[in-house]
Queue: 2 jobs
Job 1
Amino acid sequence: MSKQVIRTDKAPAPLGPYNQAIATSGQMLFVAGQISLDPQSGQIVGEGDITAQTQQVMANLEAILKEAGANWEDVVKTSVFLTDLANFVPMNQVYAEYFLEDTAPARACVEVSRLPKDVLVEIECIAVID
């Protein structure tokens, strides 16, 4: 099985030794966790605002999916990391704008003690691509 690195300047550059996404010859796309970094400025969007941060995270994920030739309908699994589960409802309201309830991907959502750059949310996903 071979792999292809997926990169786009429409999403933030990695903050460490990883790539935005990896596509495999087995038609799987693994998208690294995205935080609310603006890809142009490199600054956090929505400091302290879970709704604004989730919107930026989803925009970053969408840019990477698009670069790989995928879209939200191709996503089969997401993992959501929140620094406070009290933010679940507003995060979920934004998240729900991207997925139809009857075809939404499998999802895990966990509270973590801290995320990079002290953001409130990070989301990663796995998609099936053609």
Job 2
Amino acid sequence: MSHTCTIGSISVGTAAPLALIAGPCVLEDGDTNQLVAATLRNTCADLGLSYIFKASFDKANRSSIHSARGPGLDAGLAELKRIKDEVGVPVTTDVHEPSQAAQAAEIVDLLQVPAFLCRQTDLLKACAETGRPVNVKKGQFMAPAEMRHVVTKLGEGGCTQIMLTERGTFFGYHRLVTDFIGLGDLMELGPPVCFDVTHSTQLPGGGDGVTAGRADRGPLLARAAVAAGVAAIFMECHPNPSQAKSDASTVQPLAAMPEILASLVAIRAATDRAQSLSAAGAAD
């Protein structure tokens, strides 16, 4: 099992630069998408991070049928292609049905399988057969060790470039917890592990027809996850979080991202130094 995942020209793994997967939760108007993508591209270039733009063309699991879902498959993929071409960054989006995988793979560099769908064999198989790298979010209802079955399904479908993402575990009603022992177990399965900061701060169903959250705790979780050794961070952001069309309670302010990311780079550098010193000591 490969300990790296190659996404276009980017290599994601513990021996590679820390990677950021980020964007608005759902695709918004073109100006907002462009602003987020270009700002994060420039910030990541300055800090030495790899960057992949993420936004959904459809949010199929909204709390209310009246919530904004996004532009849909065709318009959404066209917008992702525009961002990819004009901003010059790899892009990713989630797919919810097997029939969407091949069409999305024509545009995006990384297919994402949502947490609630991570056990869906037909969806995993369809994603694997596209030949694109696949990122699967661990279900909130699953133990980390159970994700080995997901890895096996993808491998048997022909996928060799796999990433797994931690996004919290159900802890009673309206609460997720991040289990760092479990995060370590997930990292031992083989594929590089990404930590989903913003969705880990959700309070599922805790709002009035919407998902509540603790966005204020996002930077704390991000720092802890990088210190734990993850290969990538997933963090949704928006120029004006209160106006975000999806997950307004958990997205980070775009203006705060440079400071947050700089702290993550410093933590990654410190842990790399500590590991080098430990290795040198063991060699002596």
